[in-house]
Design goal:
- By secondary structure, this protein is mainly α.
- The protein contains 2 helices and no strands.
Length: about 130
Amino acid sequence: MFDIGFSEMIVIAIVALVVIGPERLPRVARTAGLLLGRLQRYVSDVKSDINREIQLDELKKLQSEIRDSARSVEQSLTSGVQEVRQTAQSVSESLTPTPAAVPAQPASPGDAQAPAAAPPVAVPAEQPKSTP
């Protein structure tokens, strides 16, 4: 804090002894020591408060950076999902038959024709087993 050497402290002590007097000097020195201790505690409290504020500010900056990166990841995932949905929809549309390719159903039951019967399937007849 102050750059006071030993010789300077002796000069201050001699001046204090002459000005204050020998009977009040111990009480003044004790009071000065208490005040100096309070001052040091106050300075250390202020330093710790400043350090906490700096750390809090750094944490807030880090939090905002993480939020920004999370938003960018979310946006990229959302766009990727949309691309996949569009691709799936286009593939689905290309695989489903168009309405022109499907025969139209008759509007009334009177207009209905019998559906074409499936061609007969030849089933081989079982041959009797011969006994020897």
